[in-house]
Amino acid sequence: MLHYELQHAADKLIKEMFAVKSGETVIITADTCSNEQVVEAVASSAYAAGAIPMVITIPTPSGVGKAADPNLPIDALAGALVHADVWIEFNHQWLLYSTPFERAEAENKKLRYMCLVDFTPELLIRTVGKVETSQLKIFMQKVTEMTKAAHTMRVTTPAGCDVSFEIDPNHFVACDCGDASYPAIHMLTGQINVVPKFGSIQGTIVFDGCVTPPFGHVPHTPIALKVENSIITQISGGTEATEFERFLKSFDDEGMFKMAHIAYGFNPGAILTGNIVEDERVWGCTEWGIGYVSPFDAPPIGQDAKSHCDGICLNSSVWLDNKLIMKEGKIVDETLLALSPVK
């Protein structure tokens, strides 16, 4: 039943990553599709650390982000979150980018938040419990430093991705390397998120890993997006490409055809499973978000959209200012290779 391993991973999340202190309020949100074992283990760890855990479980919303709003107790949920020290989200239909999320981020300047969608005991164990974060943190901080110093970025994959864009120094570059001890929007260990300069993304993006929503699995035929000036102008592939285009159009919102962000995947324990949170951290992938961008990530107003979705490009090659740093998922830059926990 993995009880010992799960509790170890939960303790590591609470004590090592969030550095939870005695007397802090730790809110854990879940819905009726969330894994109760994970929720209970993390709540127990928070209590053992001297914190006051509060578990909020809601009926599973019909959508994610702002699309979840009609199914949420918006005022009550936001009222709790604006007073929390830590918010860990285990929802199946995530609240990230929802109205309660926006209120909490705008009003609660002490909040440490992390989105851990659809986490199972096995997932928490392999991506948190078994990952040694100290060397990974050094490596990821160096990649972040190099990315922030660059002016342009290009990404290709064997599946046919070839896309370039400009890096906006005013946009936040998030390095999620296992340190959630300070107020911010944090994500699972092993991702560096970049919001490109709006309007600068040009080329073809091919999803050959998980696409969520609407699927929650790896498409049978890769989904290709033609992107001009950061806007999706054509979607091609198999039947899932048609379904994906129908999904984006269903929002009746031009913002859902705008590219939002790109992220490197760097979690040594992550494997391709169909869970977007794990898949977008598979070592050597890149992940693209579509739709909403928060004002925190791209001040002053972000990018408005009714929802947000993500897709994975496996085995990525990455150039920063025309210098190759990663080739088909493997680090080739000598400085980075010396620091990398994965050779």
What can you tell me about this protein's structure?
This protein has 343 residues and is α+β, with helices and mostly antiparallel strands. It has two domains: 3-129, Thermophilic metalloprotease-like, CATH 3.40.1830.10; 133-339, no CATH class. Helices cover 27% and strands 29% of the residues. The protein contains nine helices and 19 strands. The protein has an eight-stranded antiparallel beta sheet. Strands 7-9-14-15-16-11 form a six-stranded antiparallel beta sheet, with helices on one face. A five-stranded parallel beta sheet has the order 2-1-3-4-8, sandwiched between helices. β5 (152-156) and β6 form a beta hairpin. α1 (3-17) packs across α2 (36-48), α1 packs across α5 (121-129) and α3 (74-81) runs parallel beside α4 (99-107). The longest helix is centred in the middle third of the chain and has 17 residues, at 133-149. The radius of gyration is 19 Å and the shape is globular. The two termini are 32 Å apart. The model has no long low-confidence stretch (mean pLDDT 95). This is Leucyl aminopeptidase. Keywords: Aminopeptidase, Hydrolase, Protease.
